[in-house]
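Quick question, first post here. What does this chain look like in 3D?
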Amino acid sequence: MEEKNFYKLQPLPYGYNELEPSISEEQLTLHHDRHHKAYVDGANAILQKLDSSRQSGEQLDMKSTLKELSFNIGGHVLHSLFWKNLTPEGTKPSDFLSALIHTQFGSFENFEKEFSETAIKTEGSGWAALTYDERTERLIISQIEKHNVNMFPILPIILVLDVWEHAYYLDYKNERAKYVEAFWNIVDWEEVERRIKEAQKLI
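> Answer (accepted):
Ran it through. Tokens below.
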């Protein structure tokens, strides 16, 4: 069977050194080119294996195969969202976004504190995410264990922060809190607002 690439690793929307000093060039290069690429390659390999087994009649261990597939696709999806959440300029929230966050969390400071605590206290490897629930019209902060995006399958992710050690260890060692603090300097709030308006069907 001809080998196919179902998923592709997209280039970063900025240079590898453009997020310094919050994220170093070495750290960002390793994170994108090695770790994110591994999830893309892993997902493609499993999809190829599934196609081959269906043609040959080979019996796979579906439990482990599909668990691994979910892990790799989740890693690819979350990293793709994460890169677009960041910008070298570190934009400021607009009046629309500030008002929405203030209404939901009482103040921007409360939101930042809640999100940061969620990220810092995520057990082991995982993510902190801000999602939007159309049914309740609420912004919801959640923890994602490893890459298990299937936990919130209907809630679009508005803002996400990778707190796997591979995202920060070269720069911050085991001081995750310092990495989370630096994250706020490079958030692209224009992208966050675009995602919220898309979720609210305003665009």
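The chain has two domains: 25-84, 95-199.
The mean pLDDT is 91.
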